[in-house]
């Protein structure tokens, strides 16, 4: 039996699973400051990457999981045209009082009303007035129909 010594890892141990919470107070653990994409942005990025890989004939790595992910994004991404995805991102990015996570959730859920949005994203409650949120949602809705 050998006595092996391992070098210490350079990363701290992640918090135990289940410590993350997206409620009235966001507790996103190691993901707190991570850039977040809407489903439409993720679809745009992954589809662009796959198009480039196919063009370069490097599509050998298309897995079942990747194809299922693309199917999911195609079904649930609300904005299909690149211009509209970018316009929504600009609208959301202008709301500096909201976290990246909250902006991505608003852009992915595309709620009809401020009340619905605040119910699904409880951390918005004291960050944005209902009339301002409704105006944002209405602007996004216009982009869904074009």
UniProtKB/TrEMBL annotation:
Keyword Nucleus found: yes
Region entry Disordered, spans: 1-22
Pfam families, per the entry: RNA_pol_Rpb4 (PF03874)
SMART domains referenced in this protein's UniProt entry, alphabetically: RPOL4c
Gene Ontology molecular-function annotations: nucleotide binding
Keyword list, A-Z: Nucleus
One cellular-component annotation, GO: RNA polymerase complex
Boundaries of every RNA polymerase Rpb4/RPC9 core domain copy: 29-146
Main location: nucleus
Subcellular location: Nucleus
GO biological process, one term: DNA-templated transcription initiation
Protein family per UniProt: Belongs to the eukaryotic RPB4 RNA polymerase subunit family.
PANTHER family: DNA-DIRECTED RNA POLYMERASE II
Full protein name: HRDC-like protein
Species per Swiss-Prot/TrEMBL record: Sordaria brevicollis
């Amino acid at each position: 039996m050998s006595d092996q010594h391992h070098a210490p890892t350079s990363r701290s141990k992640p918090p135990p699973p289940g410590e993350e919470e997206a409620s009235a107070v966001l507790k996103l653990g190691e993901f707190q400051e991570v850039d977040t994409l809407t489903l439409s942005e993720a679809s745009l990025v992954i589809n662009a990457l796959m198009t480039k890989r196919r063009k370069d004939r490097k599509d050998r790595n298309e897995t079942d999981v990747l194809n299922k992910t693309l199917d999911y994004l195609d079904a649930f991404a609300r904005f299909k045209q690149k211009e509209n995805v970018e316009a929504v991102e600009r609208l959301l990015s202008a709301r500096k009082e909201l976290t990246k996570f909250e902006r991505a959730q608003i852009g992915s859920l595309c709620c009809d009303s401020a009340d619905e949005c605040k119910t699904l994203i409880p951390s918005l409650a004291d960050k944005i007035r209902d009339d301002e949120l409704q105006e944002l949602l209405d602007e996004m809705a216009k982009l869904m129909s074009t």
